[in-house]
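Title: Comparing notes on inverse folding

I've been comparing how different people in this forum approach sequence design from structure. To keep things fair, I'm posting one structure and asking everyone to reply with a full sequence. Here's the target:
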C-alpha cells in the first residue's frame, strides 16, 4: 500500500495526468486524480474540434469542468492544444489563405483569452515535424509554410502574456533528425524574439525503449533558454514485466529531475481503464484502479 501520494513528493517538478471530464463521475477515477497529481492536461477538451465545432460557436463547458476540478485540487493546468493537424473540424479544413489565417488567429485569441489566468502552459503548436525533420504536410504548413508557427506564438502571447508557451512533439526524446529540427527551430524562434518558453516531449514510450540520452537531449534544449517538460508520458509494457515497466517510469522521472529547467512530467492518462493505448497496458494504474509497481517507483523517484 502507498504511504503518500505523488504530489506530496513533487517538490522539484510537478506531476500531472491527462484527464477527461466524462470520467470525473467515476469516483475511483476522480479520487485518485485529486489525491495524486498537482497538474492536469485536458485530454481532448481544448482541441479545436471540441472548443470551436462550428465557426465562432465556442463550446467551453467540458474544458471549464476540468479547469474547475484542477483549481479545486490545487493543480496546474496545461492547455492542449491550439494549432495541430489533427482533431481540426471540417469547417476549418475547408478554408485557405487569408481567411484561414484570420481564423487561426481568432481561434487562438478566443481560446487563450477564455482561459486566461488559469493556464500554466499552452501547447501552442503540436507535432509539426516529420521523422526526417522536414515539416509535416498539414493545413497550416501547406497554406503558410513555416510562418504559422511564429504567428501562433505571437497571438497566444498577446492573449495571455503570463502563460508559458510551448511547442510539443513526439519521437523527439532522443537525438535524431526530428529532434535536431525541433532544436534548430526553437533556436531560430528565440533569436527572432518570438515568445516561446518551453518544449514539450510527449514521450509515448515502451519498456526497453527509454532513450539513454533523454536527459542529455533535454539539456541541450534548456541551454537555449527554454523550459522543457515531459507532456504525454506512457510506457507500453511491451511484453515485459510490471517491474520492468516500473523501472522505466522511474528512469524517465529521474531524467527530468536531473535537468535544471525540466519543470514537470505529465502522464497521458493514469489508468488503463481509459487509456488511449488500447493495444497494451501502458499506465501506472491498471483498469481496476490497482496500483502497479510503477506507482511506488514513480513516488520513490520524485
Ligand atoms: C489523443 C487522445 O488521448 C485520444 O483520446 C484522442 O482520440 C486522440 O488524441 N499526441 C497528442 C495528444 O498530442 O493530443 C493525443 O491524444 C495523443 C498523441
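Reply #1:
Here's my take.
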Amino acid at each position: 500500500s502507498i504511504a503518500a501520494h505523488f504530489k506530496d513528493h513533487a517538490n522539484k517538478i510537478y506531476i500531472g495526468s491527462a484527464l477527461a471530464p466524462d470520467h470525473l463521475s467515476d469516483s475511483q477515477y476522480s479520487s485518485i486524480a485529486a489525491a495524486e497529481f498537482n497538474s492536469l492536461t485536458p485530454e481532448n477538451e481544448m482541441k479545436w474540434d471540441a472548443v470551436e465545432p462550428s465557426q465562432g460557436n465556442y463550446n467551453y463547458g467540458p474544458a471549464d469542468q476540468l479547469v474547475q476540478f484542477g483549481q479545486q485540487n490545487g493543480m496546474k493546468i496545461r492547455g492542449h492544444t491550439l494549432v495541430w493537424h489533427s482533431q481540426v473540424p471540417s469547417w476549418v479544413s475547408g478554408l485557405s489563405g487569408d481567411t484561414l489565417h484570420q481564423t487561426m488567429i481568432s481561434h487562438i485569441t478566443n481560446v487563450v483569452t477564455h482561459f486566461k489566468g488559469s493556464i500554466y502552459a499552452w501547447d501552442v503548436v503540436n507535432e509539426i515535424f516529420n521523422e526526417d525533420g522536414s515539416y509535416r504536410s498539414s493545413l497550416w504548413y501547406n497554406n503558410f509554410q513555416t510562418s504559422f508557427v511564429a504567428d501562433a506564438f505571437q497571438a497566444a502571447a498577446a492573449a495571455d502574456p503570463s502563460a508559458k508557451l510551448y511547442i510539443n512533439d513526439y519521437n523527439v526524446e532522443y537525438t535524431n533528425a526530428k529532434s535536431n529540427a525541433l532544436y534548430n527551430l526553437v533556436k531560430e524562434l528565440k533569436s527572432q524574439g518570438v515568445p516561446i518558453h518551453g518544449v514539450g516531449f510527449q514521450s509515448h514510450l515502451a519498456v526497453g525503449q527509454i532513450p539513454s540520452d533523454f536527459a542529455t537531449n533535454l539539456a541541450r534544449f534548456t541551454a537555449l533558454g527554454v523550459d522543457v517538460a515531459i507532456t504525454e508520458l506512457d510506457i507500453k509494457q511491451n511484453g515485459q514485466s510490471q517491474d520492468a515497466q516500473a523501472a522505466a517510469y522511474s528512469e524517465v522521472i529521474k531524467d527530468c529531475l536531473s535537468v535544471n529547467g525540466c519543470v514537470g512530467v505529465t502522464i497521458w492518462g493514469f489508468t488503463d481503464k481509459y487509456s488511449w493505448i488500447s493495444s497494451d497496458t501502458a499506465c501506472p494504474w491498471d483498469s481496476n484502479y490497482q496500483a502497479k509497481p510503477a506507482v511506488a517507483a514513480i513516488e520513490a523517484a520524485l
